[in-house]
Structures are given as C-alpha cells and as structure tokens.
Amino acid sequence: MVQRMFGTNGVRGVINEDMNTDLALQMGKAIGKFFGGKVAIATDTRVSGDMIKSAVCAGLMAVGCDVRDLGIVPTPAIQYHVKTSDRIVGGIMITASHNPPQFNGIKCIDFDGTEMPREKEEKIEILYSGNIECKPWNGIGVLETYEGAGEEYIDAVLSHVDVDLIRKAKLTAVVDCANGAAYQTTPLLMKKLGVRAITLNADAQGEFPGHPSEPTEDNLADLIALTGSVKADVGIAHDGDADRAVFIARKGKKGYYMPGDKSLAIVAKTIVTDLGGGQVVTPVSSSSMVEEVVKAAGGSLIYTAVGSPIVARRMMKEGSVFGGEENGGLIFADHQYCRDGAMTIAKILEGIVKYGPLYDQVEALPVYYVEKRKIECPNHRKDGLIEYMKDTYSVGNKVDTTDGLKILYDDGGWVLLRPSGTEPIFRIYSESKDENLAKDRAIEFEKVANDFVNGQ
Ligand code: MG
Q: Measured in angstroms, how far is the CA atom of residue 391 from the centroid of ligand 1?
C-alpha cells in the first residue's frame, strides 16, 4: 500500500519518533529516483538538521544522484538556487518552518524552484513505498558543498528594488531572525541596503532559545518593544525558514504588530501603484481590504483555494504580478514563484522611502473586522454540511465554492465556512466593515452549522 507522506508543507514529524533516519534515508532514495540528476540540499538551524540531511544525502547518492549541499540558508534561497542553476534538477529543504524545535521536515523543490505539486509528491510516495534499487559502487553519487547560495539570493532580491534610493534614506530596522535560517542573509540584506540594523536572535543556535519560531505578536514582545524604544523605522521578523516576514510599524515610542493581511495589502498596493496596474492573486480567506486597495490602485484581483503553491501556480498561469497569503507569505512574480521573506523586506523598505512611514501606510488602509469561529464536524459529514449551508444561505446572496463555502452579502461582508484538511473541524471566518455585523453573522453560522451537525 502506498503511504501518504507529504502534508501541506512537506514531510514533517518529531525527531526520532515519526521523523527519523530510516525514513530520511528511504525518502532520499525515493526523491533521488524521482529527480534522477543533481540535487541541491539545505537546512534551517535546527539541531537535527545535520542528522536528517546526512541520511537524505546518503539515500540520494545510493541511487546515483550527485548532491550540492548549500548549508544553512532560507527556503527561498535554495528555491532561487534550484531555479537558476542549469545542472541542478531539484532541491530538498530540511525544515519544519515555524514548528517547535523537536520537529523537522523534508520539503521537495521542483526543477523551476517552485514548491512540488501534489501529483509529483504522489510519485515520490509510490517510490518510497516500494523496493528501491541502489547503484553499484561505481555508479553512486558524490557530494559537494557550495557556500555562495545565500549571497546570490540576496543579490537577486536587490535587483528588484531601488538600492540607491533605500541607501540614501539611512533607515533603521530592528531585525529578529528567530535564530533561524535567515540569521546570515537578512543582516546581509540590511548591510547592502545601508540600513542600520539592530539584530535580535541572529545566531544559528538550533534550539530557537530566543522565542518560539512562529512570528506571532506574543512571541515578538522584545522586537515590538525595541522597535518603539530605539525609534526604528521598522521591526522585522521571520519564521524558522524565512519564507515569511512580518513587520512592526512604529507609532510614536510604541511598536505596532502588523497582522499579515496588512503587509499583504500594503505590498500589493505598492506593486500595483508602481506598475500602474496588474493582477494580484490571494486565497478566498484573505481580507477584502486587499481587493479594495488593489482595485483603487488600478489593478485586479483573483481568488484561489488556500495554500501558497496554489497561489503561485495560478500566478504563473495568469501572468499575475503579485500574490500572497495573510500569514505574511508573499510571492513576487518578477523574482520567483514562491513565498519570499527577504524580497518582502526589501519591498517594505522601498515602500517606506517612497510612500512614507509604515504606520501612516497602515492608517491609510480601509478597516474591516474579522470574527473567527471553529466548530466540530465528523469528516464524513463535511460535504453534507457544505450542501446544507449552501441551500440555507444561497438565496439572495452570491456563493463562491473555490474552497469550502463563501457567502457574499450585498453590503460587502462575507462568511467563509472552510473544512480543515486534517482535523474533523470547520473554520468560520466572518468579515464586514461593521464590527457587530461580522460578529452576529459568525455567531449565526456557528449555531446553524452546529444544529445541522448535531441533527436538529
Ligand atoms: Mg516557513
């Protein structure tokens, strides 16, 4: 039987429990058979990175693949390397992104630097579940190390912004790398942009001792306080593998944690304004704030199902200029079709110079209120609930079934009912410019859905 291995972000697990060297070795062989050529590999800063990487590399070489080890670099840096290196046919990032330090994971990167599509992961799973033939002694692969990938990636990022303009502004930033994969590249980006950088948690200590690596407001208290007290132009934080960046704006002597939908909206607005138009892609769960600012700037917007590879592939298909998710994962079409933390930082810094202080840009955004709820629903009743809610709410309202069920009201508000792919739950998101209305609709949906699930 073929085992499903890959989740939404690669194969992940707790070290020496469900993520161990046996699995990593077999994965290395399976991925090597699939790629059949030279593969790049990199890790974030987790203590288990070398152990898992060594096992994956052994598997790759056993089936005849040469391996190029890039060391510790952000996920978008190995993606850029795979995309731009002719002789590299694919990549593997050893990371568990924002998960706690006991986790690690194996994430595949396609030949063009994008996240591996599901159909290719399924082929690797089939190989993984079978017997994989290894090469004779004179057919095995060799390992080389390469140290330039981080700097080449940063130089590529710089080619997409006005470096002189940013340098002249002499900005100050507080940078929190969460002791993760960007501990070298983001300080380097600051140096090349002439930004005075005060760094926090910029060591490769592997155990994330500074704070947990998910860049939430609670985890970034030091960064928020410091951004205010040193009067920095911006505070910057990454998740563990630095495909995402989040920002702290400064309001007087205080730091203001910017939710990801606000940085998404600000960067979308900047890009569409600079280009004088263009199409933006975002999942149906994103705030209408993004749509409003993109349209006001002369652009258009399309919605997809949730998931960054889905957003990226739609952008490629449509020729869109920008895309992103509200968790701070932004995708820049002129750079590469994947979430990119350093590119996001460069654009935000350029935007501060061109369009004014970050907090002023936040204040200029339209205000929407979101109310979130969660209900339990057994997996076998999920389709039934969607049908029932659709029948109940479709009269007089627009319906969007791109991902779950989205009911769009005439007043601009909406409610999204989305099943979790992994748990027996539904998430309810209700958004409106009227705070009470957003709340009332969330409560109503929660009650109607719960009554259906409980058989009333
Ligand atoms: Mg990440």
A: 38
